[in-house]
């Protein structure tokens, strides 16, 4: 890590502009909102005390098992099956990002998991976009503007990915900026969904793929070389292709072509993909020149925020202001929005703010 002379307290980090590329809408509800919405739809929660519910999520997700981690979403999804729940959670999502100092975010979710209440896929997307737009308008009025783009997820263990890819194409100019596949990684390789990825490429819609979290190099290789992903969700297991600082062909390819790794330190600890913040691969990968980005993954489930993720890296892995600025710029350079918008955020928002704190 490069050195810099500054005090990086959580309060200082909270004021810094941030960018988050990997964050799930259904993993980031406010605990109090989850309690209220669950009561309105008659869904039973582990507890109706918001503080206890927040603690339950962190404990349940910290089992080291990705399948159990994913299972905690049963409760959030239960309250996101109707227009009212989607509007509220999307609006609050944006306001929570703004309060965390995020100036650009990409939020992802799987529309196919939100149709049990009778909504169509299109109605789900339109409700989420309306809620996000309301949140962005309120954040701007409060003097904390944040730009939020949407990634639509196909679930890799089901058979609707091509249908969701069509949805991403249809809403490409209405707030949807890209596509992803999510869900249990082991046993459900990216190459199973080639038709969806081919369609997205033909329509010039960018996509990222969850890979290298619960499964190793074959998953990452398929995501990049077979499917054509522009970014990798997590990608922690790329270290399997690095020994004593020497990189194999796949690791070199990803580094040299600036394929961003959407790394989520706290989440990776919870799912067993990393052992500690101090030894998380993100620090070594950054030192080796990879384009790494810092992300929250699921703010409720992981009990985290961008401020917390950055603070942990500072306190436990020795990161500096220079490191935080670099990964923020890298995230914006890898965002799925037009170049001019990315450059404006970097030049007009991020760099001046970090210079002021140097």
UniProtKB/TrEMBL annotation:
Gene3D superfamilies: Metal-dependent hydrolases. Binds 1 zinc ion per subunit. NCBIfam families: aden_deam, PRK09358.1-2. Its cofactor is Zn(2+). Catalyzes the hydrolytic deamination of adenosine and 2-deoxyadenosine. Belongs to the metallo-dependent hydrolases superfamily. Adenosine and AMP deaminases family. Adenosine deaminase subfamily. The record marks 234 as: Important for catalytic activity. Substrate binds at residues 24, 26, 183. Its EC number is 3.5.4.4. One of its GO terms (molecular function) is adenosine deaminase activity. Zn(2+) binds at residues 22, 24, 210, 297. It comes from Streptomyces globosus. PANTHER family: ADENOSINE DEAMINASE. GO terms for biological process: adenosine catabolic process; hypoxanthine salvage; inosine biosynthetic process; nucleotide metabolic process; purine ribonucleoside monophosphate biosynthetic process. Residues 17-349 form the Adenosine deaminase domain. It catalyses: adenosine + H2O + H(+) = inosine + NH4(+); 2'-deoxyadenosine + H2O + H(+) = 2'-deoxyinosine + NH4(+). Pfam families: A_deaminase. The active site is at residue 213. This is Adenosine deaminase. One of its GO terms (cellular component) is cytosol. It comes from the Bacteria. InterPro entries: A_deaminase (IPR028893), A_deaminase_dom (IPR001365), Ado/ade_deaminase (IPR006330), Metal_Hydrolase (IPR032466).
